[in-house]
Amino acid sequence: MHRYVVPEWVKQRVLRRQGKLFANETIAASRSALVVVDMQNYFCAEGFPAEVPLARTVVPNINRLARAMRAAGGAVVWIQTDSAEALTRWGNHHNYMLTPERVEKRLAGLAATSKGFELFIGLEALPGDLRVRKATYSAFMPGSSNLDADLKARGIDTVLITGTATNVCCETSARDAMVRDYRVIMLSDGNATWSDEEHAATLNTFAIFFGDVMTTDEALARIEPVPKRKTA
Questions:
Q1: Which are the contacts of 166, defined by CB distance < 8 A and separation ≥ 6?
Q2: Cα 212 to the chain's mean position, in Å?
Q3: Section 204-229 average pLDDT
Q4: Residues 1-17: tens digit of each pLDDT
Q5: Is 19 left (phi over 0), alpha (psi -120 to 50) or beta?
Q6: 41-77 pLDDT per residue, tens
Q7: 190: three-class secondary structure by DSSP
Q8: To the nearest 10°, the Cα dihedral for 121, 124, 130, 132?
Q9: How far apart are CA 154 and CA 61, in angstroms?
Q10: What is the per-residue DSSP string for 5-34?
Q11: What burial class does residue 94 get, using C-beta atoms within 10 Å of its C-beta: 0-12 exposed, 13-18 middle, 19+ buried?
Q12: Domain edges within the chain
C-alpha cells in the first residue's frame, strides 16, 4: 500500500480555502455511493499488460468500504473499462499516443469477453451492486458511461472514489464528478498506482482544489446509515 500522509502545506492550503480539513464531515449513506474504478485483472492481476502491483493491496479496504456502505443503505458501484468503443469514442488517443502493440493489447485485454475485463479475484462484488462499463478514462464524462445518469436517478450526490490507477482513471473520474456537482472523496489507502510519487501528486492536488482525501478509517467513521422507518 502507498505510504501517504497529507503534507502540512496541503492541509494549510485546504484550511485557507474552506476553513476545515474535510468538506464532508458526515457521509449520508442515502445519498452516497462507493465507486470502485477499474479493479480488473488487466490492471490488477500479475502478468497483465497494465498491471499495478499495489492495486492488490487495497482490495481489503475496498471490501471494508463496500460492506459498510451496503450495511448503511448506500450504493456500491463497480466500474469496468470495456474496449468495445475505444476507437470510436477516443480514437486519437489510440492512434497517436499508443504504439500499435499497445493498442492491440489494450483492445484485446479489455474486451468484455476477455479475462482482463473481469474483476480481480477477492473483490466482494454482490448481485445487488451496480455494474457500469466505461469507454474512456473518466466514468463521469458524457458518452463514456451511464454512471452519472444512474447515480442521479438514485438521488446520489456524494461519491467515494477507490480503485486504480490513482492518477489516471480514478483521478479523471473524481475530477469530472466534482465539476458535475458531486461531493467527492478520494480514499488515500483505497487507490493505487505505479509509484508513491504519482499517488501523492494526485492526492495533494485533489485535496487542494477538488474534494476530500481521507483514509478508509476516516471515511468509515463518517458514514451515517439511512434512518430506519418507524413502524406503527
A1: 2, 186, 191, 192, 193, 198, 199, 202, 203
A2: 13
A3: 95
A4: 999 999 999 999 999 99
A5: left
A6: 999 999 999 999 999 999 999 999 999 999 999 999 9
A7: strand
A8: -20
A9: 25
A10: ---HHHHHHHHHHHSSS-S-SSEEGGGEEE
A11: middle
A12: 8-224
Q: Look at phi and psi of residue 227 and say left if phi exceeds 0, alpha if psi is from -120 to 50, else beta.
A: beta
Q: Mean pLDDT score of the chain, rounded to an integer?
A: 95
- Residues involved in catalysis: 38, 134, 169
Nearest residue to 125 (alpha-carbon basis) of 48, 204, 34:
34
Please report, for residues 16, 25, 26, 178, 212, the alpha-carbon distance to residue 21 in angstroms, rounded to integers and kept in the order given.
Answer: 10, 9, 13, 17, 8
C-alpha cell at 56: 492488490
Helix (H, G, I), strand (E, B) or coil at 187: strand
Name the one residue in this structure whose C-alpha cell is 473483490.
Answer: 123
Q: What is the pTM of this model?
A: 0.95
Strands 212-214 and 130-134: unpaired
List pLDDT tens digits, range 87-138. 888 888 888 998 999 889 888 989 999 999 999 999 999 999 999 999 999 9
CATH class of the structural domain 8-224: alpha beta
**Residue pair 52/59 in contact by the 8 Å Cβ criterion:** no
Percent of the chain with pLDDT over 90: 87
Establish whether the linkage from the previous residue to 165 is cis, with ω within 30° of 0: yes
